[in-house]
């Protein structure tokens, strides 16, 4: 994703301000030009870039600043603030509530990743305890129903569609009736796409929307369409009451500017991004982590806010926070995390986000070995006593305990020592993470 490069460029522009001996109008102008260039290169639309630049300039009025004011900080704050403002439409998207039937309709051009994303979205909520169902109201594309059926079966989500019925409205209504009777609390309707925006597509969308009265219309957009994103998003917004955006294919050559432009065009938030063809390749999108990712090079740290989100998928905050705040990162906590991680998709995604961890623990492209290592660690921990797992005393693990654990787990003493060292290292790193950033436990289901 070129977003990382965008982050780097913006960070470099800000670093130049930081390093300047005197912060004057010229330094500010150079910084703004550099940021504009970076945004344009990331495919953000020219008009949006122009507005961003003007707004930052308006916020940072160097002449009016009192002597002694930290101009560098003011510029940095203005840049981050403006990027957040551009991305934050100010009103959150509708989020489904467990046990209350909601209808969510997906719209977008053919090939945008709409059908794949419907299943990812359903699966996301299923993992949160919802009872979702999928309805294929795409009668335009041959094979659409088969594709949805295949994805839905893989994710074990009930689905409805027809090979013979050609009226999408009829299918949508039938599917809705059926799943409402079955007490599904999140009914997702996949609609037809076309190769390009055209009247027939928008008319069909309008009819399905009128018949199903969705609580939320999600516009799915291919992240790699670049500059065209703004116009496409705006066209959909004008024809359907788009309330949220999902940008797909952010794993490939997508420069990321499309996501920024789509928010600007629809004034609706991007709620998720697609990062691959598979069901778990789906990430919650939140403005602040996104912007912090842009600035990742500035701090020299990983994307900690994004990391927090991932961690909460692995271990709910109400379980994790008390454990961490009690003080030590025990072996039991590490064991539970490994357990949860094994149930959820690619580990690399999480580990690569922890600064300093990926290189030593799971090398890129060697995820299989990483998994094997985790398995080995868990076998070793299976041979530990309750006291050892909950231990916070560094002196407890003496030679005799280590040999006993090695014998019990059928592993070498050296392997047990390695594992304990690894645990120490991870615990040290975790102690530096801003755990206060965890979402409050009672907000766990909101996006
Ligand atoms: P639809 O025509 O809009 O329903 O699009 P599909 O769901 O059929 O997706 C079109 C193609 O894009 C398929 O090959 C998908 O596997 C692929 N795809 C969807 N989302 C993503 C994503 O986030 N990343 C990548 N790399 N491919 C995706």
Automatic annotation (TrEMBL):
**Keyword annotations of the record:** Cytoplasm, Endoplasmic reticulum, GTP-binding, Hydrolase, Nucleotide-binding, Ribonucleoprotein, RNA-binding, Signal recognition particle
Q: Which parts pass through the membrane?
A: none
The protein's annotated catalytic reaction(s) are: GTP + H2O = GDP + phosphate + H(+)
Q: Where in the cell is it found?
A: Cytoplasm; Endoplasmic reticulum
GO terms assigned for molecular function = 7S RNA binding; endoplasmic reticulum signal peptide binding; GTP binding; GTPase activity
Top-rank taxon, per record: Eukaryota
Which is a GO BP term held by this UniProt record?
A: SRP-dependent cotranslational protein targeting to membrane, translocation
User: GO cellular-component terms in the record?
Assistant: cytosol; endoplasmic reticulum; signal recognition particle, endoplasmic reticulum targeting
- Which Enzyme Commission numbers does its entry carry? 3.6.5.4
- Every copy of the SRP54-type proteins GTP-binding domain together lies at 269-282
Q: Does the keyword DNA repair apply?
A: no
Record carries keyword Lipid metabolism = no
Task: State the family named in the UniProt similarity comment for this chain.
Answer: Belongs to the GTP-binding SRP family. SRP54 subfamily.
* Subunit structure as annotated in this protein's UniProt entry: Component of a signal recognition particle (SRP) complex that consists of a 7SL RNA molecule of 300 nucleotides and six protein subunits: SRP72, SRP68, SRP54, SRP19, SRP14 and SRP9.
Q: Name the job this protein performs.
A: Component of the signal recognition particle (SRP) complex, a ribonucleoprotein complex that mediates the cotranslational targeting of secretory and membrane proteins to the endoplasmic reticulum (ER). As part of the SRP complex, associates with the SRP receptor (SR) component SRPRA to target secretory proteins to the endoplasmic reticulum membrane. Binds to the signal sequence of presecretory proteins when they emerge from the ribosomes. Displays basal GTPase activity, and stimulates reciprocal GTPase activation of the SR subunit SRPRA.
Its protein name is: signal-recognition-particle GTPase
Give the organism the record lists. Panicum miliaceum
Coverage span on the entire protein: 1 to 447 of 636
């Amino acid at each position: 994703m070129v977003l990382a490069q965008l982050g780097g460029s913006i960070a470099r522009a800000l670093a130049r301000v930081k390093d300047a001996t005197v912060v004057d109008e010229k330094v500010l102008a150079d910084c703004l030009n550099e940021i504009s260039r970076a945004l344009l290169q990331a495919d953000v639309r020219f008009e949006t870039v122009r507005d961003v630049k003007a707004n930052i300039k308006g916020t940072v009025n160097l002449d009016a600043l009192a002597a002694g004011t930290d101009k560098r900080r003011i510029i940095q704050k203005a840049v981050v603030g403006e990027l957040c403002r551009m991305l934050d439409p100010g009103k959150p998207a509708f989020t489904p509530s467990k046990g209350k039937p909601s209808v969510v309709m997906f719209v977008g051009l053919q090939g945008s990743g709409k059908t794949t994303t419907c299943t990812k979205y359903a699966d996301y909520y299923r993992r949160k305890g919802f009872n979702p169902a999928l309805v294929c109201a795409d009668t335009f594309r041959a094979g659409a129903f088969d594709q949805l059926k295949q994805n839905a079966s893989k994710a074990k989500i009930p689905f409805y569609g027809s090979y013979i019925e050609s009226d999408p409205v009829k299918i949508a209504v039938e599917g809705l009736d059926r799943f409402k009777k079955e007490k599904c609390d999140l009914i997702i309707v996949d609609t037809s796409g076309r190769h390009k925006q055209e009247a027939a597509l928008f008319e069909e969308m309008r009819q399905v929307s009128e018949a199903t009265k969705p609580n939320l219309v999600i516009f799915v957009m291919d992240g790699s369409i670049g500059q065209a994103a703004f116009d496409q998003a705006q066209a959909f917004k004008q024809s359907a009451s788009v309330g949220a955006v999902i940008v797909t294919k952010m794993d490939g050559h997508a420069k990321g500017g499309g996501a920024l432009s789509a928010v600007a065009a629809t004034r609706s938030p991007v709620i998720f991004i697609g990062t691959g063809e598979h069901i778990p390749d789906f990430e919650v999108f939140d403005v602040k982590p996104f912007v912090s990712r842009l600035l990742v090079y500035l701090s020299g740290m990983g994307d900690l806010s994004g990391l927090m989100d991932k961690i909460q998928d692995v271990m709910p905050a109400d379980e994790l926070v008390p454990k961490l705040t009690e003080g030590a990162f025990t072996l039991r906590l590490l064991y539970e995390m490994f357990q949860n991680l094994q149930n959820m998709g690619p580990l690399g995604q999480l580990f690569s986000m922890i600064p300093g961890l990926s290189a030593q623990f799971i090398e890129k492209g060697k995820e299989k070995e990483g998994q094997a290592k985790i398995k080995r660690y868990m076998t070793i921990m299976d041979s530990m006593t309750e006291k050892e797992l909950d231990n916070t005393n560094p002196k407890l693990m003496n030679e005799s305990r280590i040999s006993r654990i090695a014998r019990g787990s059928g592993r070498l003493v050296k392997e047990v020592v390695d594992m304990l060292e690894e645990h120490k290292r991870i615990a040290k790193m975790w102690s530096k993470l801003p755990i206060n950033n965890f979402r409050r436990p009672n907000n766990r289901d909101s996006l």
